[in-house]
UniProtKB/TrEMBL annotation:
<dbReference type="Pfam" id="PF02668">
    <property type="entry name" value="TauD"/>
</dbReference>
<feature type="domain" description="TauD/TfdA-like">
    <location>
        <begin position="20"/>
        <end position="376"/>
    </location>
</feature>
<dbReference type="GO" id="GO:0051213">
    <property type="term" value="F:dioxygenase activity"/>
</dbReference>
<dbReference type="GO" id="GO:0046872">
    <property type="term" value="F:metal ion binding"/>
</dbReference>
<protein>
    <recommendedName>
        <fullName>TauD/TfdA-like domain-containing protein</fullName>
    </recommendedName>
</protein>
<dbReference type="InterPro" id="IPR042098">
    <property type="entry name" value="TauD-like_sf"/>
</dbReference>
<keyword id="KW-0223">Dioxygenase</keyword>
<keyword id="KW-0560">Oxidoreductase</keyword>
<dbReference type="InterPro" id="IPR003819">
    <property type="entry name" value="TauD/TfdA-like"/>
</dbReference>
<comment type="similarity">
    <text>Belongs to the TfdA dioxygenase family.</text>
</comment>
<dbReference type="InterPro" id="IPR051178">
    <property type="entry name" value="TfdA_dioxygenase"/>
</dbReference>
<keyword id="KW-0479">Metal-binding</keyword>
<keyword id="KW-0408">Iron</keyword>
């Protein structure tokens, strides 16, 4: 049977030409039982289209782990490592993660209480809410009227010691139906986006780079980001911006000496732009919440200095300046017309290129709206490649 790749249906808010290559529904392949030829075809499609959707599939946790591992056969542990260490207990991610006992690389995430699920006698799940993470809140009245926010734009990655997973697989076991909501940006732009209840929102890192003006493309191609050690512990006391795209700079982060033990050599310094292994294109891949410093290379010889930012290079250590620069480069790409909010149905399996997109949990669920998803990603066997010498020459 041949595999077909069908464009996803985009919401009316989407800039269809800009999202033309984004996302495909896959038909004609069983994701739990791919042969090597089918896998190679699907991997290439994922690199080209960022997000793949399989509708109405049945896949066990074992099969989901195997599918995820296909993308990186040497990878073994869950993307955030074992879910039992001290650093994970204190992490802001900890309450969101419940491990399937017989396949610890697969997590159960969602909302409400589930019983006798895949070896878990009882699991209390909580859909993350902006109310526990953002500095400002939606009023109870607006919330009752279905107003919500992006929770946190991110890449699935530990950002300390472990390398960012190549792919994340998300399987919708139980999906609550309910009225659509309106995701409000609350950043003085007036931007808002109608979203299905409990959507996962995606934006393309390629688009994030492509739409930048030349001086910010030049900065992006020359810059590396240094992440905080144990970033999810470090950021735990801090509060996020209303767009969920980074943290308010109020000095609330944990001092580095108060973090669980860490070593400088295990910290992550990653390029702003990650080179897509299937297309060679550059994707703007920064987890804005975990960034702590920037290293900017000087312009290469022959590059135009006029209008360039940091033409002689820089080591930016002021946290507010780091965040402001990243926000200036990332905010345009989360505009409503560039967001794909997935409308989940039960038995949907979504694969996303975690090194090519940013994504966010969205929406507020009440306790009786039970949502059960299986999520798998694996700490990669390598770090992502950055821009080539030729890329720097082309964009700096
Ligand atoms: Fe995620």
């Amino acid at each position: 049977m041949t595999i077909t790749f069908i464009p996803l249906s985009l919401p009316a808010t989407a800039d269809a030409p800009k999202l033309a290559r984004f996302g495909r529904e896959v038909r004609g392949a069983d994701p739990g039982n791919l042969n090597p030829e089918q896998f190679i075809e699907i991997r290439q499609a994922l690199y080209e289209h960022d997000v793949l959707l399989f509708r109405d599939v049945t896949i066990t946790p074992e099969q989901q782990y195997a599918l995820t591992k296909f993308f990186d056969p040497e990878s073994q542990t869950y993307g955030h490592g074992q879910n039992k260490t001290e650093s994970n207990q204190k992490s802001i991610l900890h309450p969101d993660l419940k491990t399937i006992p017989r396949v610890p690389q697969v997590q159960v995430i969602g909302n409400g209480t589930v019983y006798n699920h895949e070896g878990l006698a009882q699991a209390k799940l909580k859909h993350p809410s902006h109310a526990t993470f953002h500095k400002t809140q939606i009023s109870p009245k607006d919330e009752a009227n279905g107003v919500t926010r992006f929770y946190r734009w991110h890449i699935d990655a530990a950002l300390y010691d472990l390398s960012p997973p190549r792919v994340t697989t998300l399987y919708g076991v139980t999906v609550p139906r309910g009225s659509p909501q309106v995701c409000r940006y609350d950043d003085d732009t007036g931007d808002e986006l109608p979203v299905p209840l409990g959507t996962t929102a995606f934006v393309s890192g390629k688009t994030m780079f492509d739409i930048l003006p030349p001086e910010l493309k030049s900065l992006a191609v020359r810059t590396k980001v240094k992440y905080a050690p144990h970033p999810y512990v470090w950021m735990a006391p801090a509060r996020a911006l209303p767009t969920g795209l980074g943290i308010e700079s109020e000095g609330l982060e944990l001092p580095l000496k108060e973090l669980p033990p860490w070593e400088e050599a295990r910290r992550k310094i990653l390029p702003v732009l990650w080179k897509n292994p299937g297309t060679g294109q550059l994707h703007f891949q920064v987890h804005p919440c975990g960034a702590i410093e920037l290293f900017v290379d000087a312009l290469p010889e022959g590059a135009k200095r006029e209008g360039a930012l940091f033409p002689d290079g820089a080591h930016v250590t002021d946290l507010k300046e780091v965040r402001d620069l990243l926000y200036r480069m990332q905010r345009p790409a989360i505009s409503p017309n560039l967001v794909y909010p997935h409308d989940w149905h039960e038995k949907d399996l979504v694969l996303f290129h975690n090194r090519g997109v940013l994504h966010s949990v969205v929406g507020a669920l009440s306790e009786d709206q039970v949502r059960v998803f299986h999520q798998c990603n694996l700490a990669a066997s390598d770090d992502p490649a950055g821009p080539s010498v030729e890329d720097v020459h082309n964009w700096a």
